[in-house]
Specification:
The chain is mainly alpha-helical. The protein has helices at residues 4-17, 26-48, 57-80, 86-97, 101-112, 122-128, 131-142, 150-158, 161-181, 185-188, 192-208, 211-217, 219-243, 247-258, 264-272, 278-311. The chain starts with a helix and ends with a helix.
Length: 312
C-alpha cells in the first residue's frame, strides 16, 4: 500500500493536472520547509549526542567524494549523450550531484513507519552532500580563475537557509540531548508526518507545472531523470556497504544519492552560472526524478539494500 504522505503528493499532482485552483499560501509553504529542516536537524543532533564524533570523519570524506563523483558522471552524460552546452550540462549535473531534503524526509518517514532503524549521522551526510556538487559544477564551467567570486559563492553555499537550519537544528539537538529536547518533542517529532504530508501536497502541485516543459524537451530528459537516480542509488549502496551501514542506513544513503536538489543548487547556480537555463534542470528534477523517487524509488532502493545487506 502506498504511504499516506505519498498519497498527499499524488493528490497535489492530480489537482494540478486537472487545473484545480487548489494552492497553499506561499508563506505556509516556506513555514513547512523551515519546520521540516529544523525537525530533521534536531533528530540527527539527538542521535549524535549519543555517539562520538571523530569516527565520522572518514565517513564524511567518502560521502563528499560520492557527491563530487556523481556530478562529474552527470556532466559527462549530459554533455556527451544529451549534447547540452557546457553551462547547462554543468548546472544540471550539480543538481544531480547534490541532494533533496524533501526526498530524504520521505525516506525517513518510509523507514520510521516500518520501524526500520538507521544511523543518526545520516542527517550530517544530508548537509555535507549539498556542497561538493555546487563547487564541482562551478569549476566545470568557470575553472578556478581570478574572476570567480568565491566569497559570494561561499556565502550562498555555506550560509543558505537550508544548511543553516539543518546544521543549527543538529547543533541544538546535540547540545540539548534527550532531556533538553523533551519539552519541544511533541511539536517537532510527533507532528513531523502531518507537516510532511502538507509539504508534499504543495510539491505535487509544483510538479504538475513542470510537465509541459518535459514534453518540450523530449525523451532524453525523461530518460535521464529516471536512469541517473538508479545509477546514483547503486553507487550510494556501494558506499554504504563500504561504511558498514545498517539496512536502514543503506536505504537512506541510496535515497540521498538518487535524489537531486531543487532549492540550494538552483539558487547558487543562478548566481554562479547565470547563462545556464534553470528550466531544463528543474523540469528534470521536479517533473521526473522527485516523483519517481517518492513513488517507486525508495521502495526499490530498500529492496536492493535488503538484498546486498544480506549478501555482505
Amino acid at each position: 500500500m502506498i504511504d499516506v504522505v505519498v498519497m498527499f503528493f499524488l493528490l497535489g499532482l492530480a489537482a494540478g493536472l486537472m487545473r484545480s485552483d487548489l494552492k497553499l499560501p506561499a508563506a505556509l509553504y516556506e513555514s513547512l520547509a523551515v519546520f521540516l529542516l529544523l525537525a530533521i536537524g534536531l533528530k540527527g543532533g539527538l542521535g549524535l549526542a549519543q555517539q562520538p564524533i571523530l569516527p565520522l570523519l572518514p565517513q564524511l570524506a567518502l560521502v563528499i567524494s560520492l557527491g563530487a563523483a556523481l556530478t562529474l558522471f552527470g556532466f559527462v552524460v549530459l554533455k556527451g549523450v544529451g549534447r547540452l552546452n557546457r553551462a547547462d550540462a554543468a548546472s544540471m549535473a550539480a543538481h544531480y550531484g547534490s541532494v533533496s531534503v524533501a526526498t530524504y524526509a520521505v525516506g525517513v518517514n518510509w523507514l520510521s513507519s516500518r520501524q526500520i532503524a538507521f544511523e543518526s549521522q545520516m542527517v550530517i551526510f544530508l548537509a555535507v552532500m549539498e556542497i561538493p556538487a555546487i563547487l564541482v559544477g562551478i569549476v566545470l564551467v568557470r575553472g578556478m580563475g581570478k574572476d570567480t567570486q568565491w566569497g559570494k559563492l561561499a556565502h550562498e553555499t555555506f550560509l543558505g537557509k537550508g544548511v543553516v537550519l539543518l546544521l543549527g537544528g543538529m547543533a541544538i539537538g546535540w547540545a540539548a540531548g534527550p532531556e533538553g529536547l523533551a519539552p519541544i518533542k511533541p511539536l517537532f517529532f510527533e507532528l513531523f508526518k502531518g507537516v510532511l504530508a502538507l509539504f508534499l501536497l504543495e510539491m505535487g502541485l509544483i510538479v504538475s507545472r513542470q510537465l509541459d516543459e518535459i514534453k518540450k524537451r523530449g525523451a532524453f530528459i525523461l530518460a535521464f531523470g529516471v536512469l541517473m537516480p538508479l545509477f546514483s542509488a547503486a553507487l550510494g549502496l556501494f558506499c554504504g556497504l563500504l561504511l558498514g551501514l545498517s539496512l536502514g542506513g543503506l536505504t537512506l544513503l541510496a535515497t540521498l544519492a538518487a535524489s537531486a536538489s531543487y532549492i540550494a543548487v538552483p539558487a547558487t547556480m543562478r548566481l554562479a552560472v547565470p547563462e545556464a537555463n534553470p528550466v531544463i534542470s528543474l523540469a528534470a528534477v521536479l517533473g521526473v526524478t522527485f516523483p519517481f523517487n517518492v513513488v517507486f524509488g525508495i521502495p526499490l532502493y530498500h529492496r536492493l539494500a535488503s538484498y546486498f545487506h544480506g549478501v555482505f
